[in-house]
Design a protein that fits this description.
The protein has 667 residues and is α/β, with parallel strands linked by helices. It is 50% helix and 12% strand. The strands form 4 sheets. The protein has an 8-stranded mixed beta sheet. A two-stranded antiparallel sheet has the order 6-7. It has a two-stranded parallel ribbon with strand order 11-14.
């Protein structure tokens, strides 16, 4: 029974057991308890006493509190079924959400055949769609191949007459019907009684054991005494299967046991206002595992083949509609911001200030922002919004792609833009093409895509709903890897993010003296700082809060992704929009401090590919030699002034005439 409930056929891990204090119940629990850990079962046991309604009420209350929807009844008192059904009905444990399982001795075959219940009564509804576990004979499911049944059906009327004549209750009147009388075709029209193959094999076992003992004696003894050990050492193929016994516990070997069967109880006909019950064999166990009977499907209380949920949940922790709207609104704002900024950059691409900022990289930054913002959509849905588990699993798979790829695109665009500007202003090259500066970014991006492909292929994220540790009646849905921990992939991608961030900070330091018109160093630094603050804010909440706080975790993730997707775009592009709008409204400022601070060493003429002329964002060709001559002349004049001032202080000259003033150099 434990393997039937806990294996992949049903996967019902949460099981409550109602049992009495009989030897049968004790033996049942001793068998199922060792399998609890191996099969991953979560068992709750409640005991009842004979003729004690209070004990039944207490047991049912324990089951209700546990929240398990699979209830196993183990007792040797079939009369308890009606009392248990009545109390279970009062507690709401009967219906389409529950699956009742009854051990064989709790509802013997003969008892079930004559059992009657009022339609729609608690017992009638409890038995509907329930399962009964019994030991079954091979002839119950393999009639054409079972030798015992074949020999049974081969018996003729002579054996029937012999059995009738030997009947111990036979009276003087041959037509008296106060005892069983077999007809001539009895063996062809009737099956053997349940477990009759076991009775047959027990007789044969005794006979074979006696024969083996007799053969081992040197002479025929006057009295043959057979011990238990001699019987347990006998092995043969009998009507019930291979007959053999395990050493040590005197029990029959599992491989030699007859099959176990699962019978599905269904409503029968109503006669005189009372309903009867039918049972159908739906699965068998022959030592190696459970197999379904192809001709019969198990139907549950709702008369379908879909089993009820294994655990009653009082709180599924679905995402609240208000939080859902907030998340999608922030995602829409982030994508609209990225799209609008990119469109404005494209329309203003010929403006000298925008041209100096290299608009192609700014548009790539906006694209990365939109990709990162799309991550919010992947976490904004659950089953309450009509999404299937398969659809949610696809969203889980897309989540790391959107976040990591979007992050690397944003940082790669900023890094490539600053690297290109740094090479120009350092006069290391006369012409800096885009494809030269984006190579490091493309290498990191390809490595990240490779890691994501491997992650998705061998250990993809999937949507799982798990019970909360602190509340077994509550569940939470989240993205989890299906095979093993995703940490190796996550750490690898985080290492790449850290490397890219450090590289960006390094290039920011190198370009700190270049004016904001070209590099926006200060604003980019503030954007990176905002990202670091988002990490510091989110990580303690994700790792410190209970997994059942779905809405808190969701809002934290949404704010985190919103900051990541919008910070750089807002801090890099919005100032340009404000300056452009200010110029449109108030005109060009006369106090502009946008003159470049440049390095005066290197080549005389430098050109950035993509910038058309000096009037469109770059100053006139720089001639360092001319500035050097002017600086040398100023230094010479300064030295003469210092010399004359020193002479005045020493009193070597007594008169200061107009001629001296004429000798003073003009700067």
């Amino acid at each position: 029974m434990a393997k039937y409930l806990g294996n992949t056929m049903l996967n019902r891990k949460y099981v409550s057991i109602i049992s009495d204090h009989s030897d049968y119940s004790t033996q049942f629990e001793s068998f199922i308890r060792p399998l609890e850990g191996a099969l991953g079962l979560n068992l709750i046991t409640a005991n009842v006493l004979e003729n004690s309604i209070k004990s039944i009420d207490n047991a049912i209350s324990v089951i209700v509190k546990g929240g398990h929807n699979t209830i196993v009844l183990v007792t040797e008192q079939p009369a308890l079924l009606e009392h248990i059904a009545r109390m279970a009905d009062e507690k709401g444990l009967i219906g389409e959400n529950y699956f009742w399982v009854i051990a064989g001795r709790s509802l013997p075959r003969a008892y079930l055949e004559r059992l009657r219940a009022a339609p729609n009564s608690p017992l009638d509804r409890m038995l509907k769609g329930s399962a009964v576990f019994r030991i079954i004979d091979p002839f119950m499911y393999q009639r054409d191949m079972d030798r015992f049944l074949i020999n049974w059906m081969a018996q003729d009327s002579s054996l029937v007459s012999q059995l009738n004549s030997l009947h111990p209750l036979k009276g003087n009147n041959p037509f008296q019907v106060d005892y069983f009388v077999g007809t001539d075709n009895y063996f062809q029209m009737n099956d053997p009684a349940p477990l009759s193959s076991y009775i047959y094999d027990s007789v044969i076992l005794t006979g074979i054991s006696a024969c083996e003992l007799l053969m081992s004696e040197e002479k025929i003894p006057a009295k043959l005494e057979i011990t238990v050990n001699e019987i347990l050492g006998t092995r043969f193929l009998g009507a019930s299967g291979n007959v053999s016994f395990e050493e040590g516990n005197n029990g029959r070997s599992p491989g030699g046991l007859s099959a176990y069967g699962v019978y599905n109880i269904r409503h029968g006909d109503i006669v005189n206002g009372l309903r009867g019950f039918d049972s159908s064999l739906t699965a068998i166990y022959q030592g190696s595992g459970w197999d379904k009977i192809s001709a019969t499907e198990f139907t549950y209380y709702d008369e379908t083949t879909s089993q009820p949920t294994p655990l009653r949940t009082t709180n599924s922790n679905f995402l609240a509609t208000g939080r859902h709207v907030v998340g999608l609104t922030l995602m829409g704002m982030a994508i609209a911001n990225a799209t609008g900024c990119c469109l404005w950059i494209w329309l203003m691409r010929n403006n000298k200030k925008i041209l100096a900022s290299q608009p192609e990289f700014l548009c790539v930054l906006c694209f990365g922002s939109a990709v990162t913002a799309a991550s919010i959509a992947m976490i904004s849905f659950d089953e309450s919004y009509g999404w299937s588990v398969n659809a949610l699993a696809h969203g889980c798979k897309a989540l790391p792609w959107c976040f990591f790829i979007g992050y690397l695109i944003m940082y790669g665009a900023i890094f490539s833009k600053l690297s290109r500007t740094n090479q120009v202003f350092s006069f290391r090259r006369k012409k800096v093409e885009i494809n030269r500066v984006v190579r490091p970014f493309l290498v990191v991006l390809m490595l990240s895509i490779t890691v994501l492909i491997i992650w998705t292929a061998i250990n993809p994220l999937a949507w799982v709903r798990m019970e909360n540790k602190n509340d077994p009646l509550a569940t939470s849905g989240k993205c989890e890897s299906v095979n093993f921990s995703p940490l190796p992939f996550f750490i690898t991608l985080m290492v790449m993010i850290v490397m890219v961030t450090i590289s960006l900070l390094a290039i920011l330091w190198q370009t700190k003296d270049i004016q904001d018109e070209f590099v926006e160093s200060n604003w980019i630094f503030y954007g990176i700082l905002a990202h670091l603050q988002a990490w510091v804010m989110a990580l303690p909440i994700w790792f410190g809060i209970d997994s059942g706080s779905t809405n808190v975790i969701y809002l934290t993730a949404v704010v985190f992704l919103f900051i990541f997707s919008t910070a750089l775009v807002v801090l890099v592009i919005w100032p340009k929009i404000f300056m452009w709008a200010h110029t449109k409204i108030y005109g060009e400022s006369n106090n502009s401090k946008m003159r470049p601070r440049i390095n005066l060493s290197g080549d005389k003429h430098v050109h950035i590919s993509g910038l058309r002329s000096s009037q469109e964002g770059i100053s006139h060709p720089i001639q360092p030699d001319t500035y050097k001559e002017q600086v040398s002349h100023l230094f010479a004049e300064n030295s003469e002034l210092k010399k004359e001032i020193l002479e005045l202080k020493q009193g070597k000259k007594t008169q200061l005439g107009n001629s001296q003033g004429e000798e003073l150099p003009h700067s």
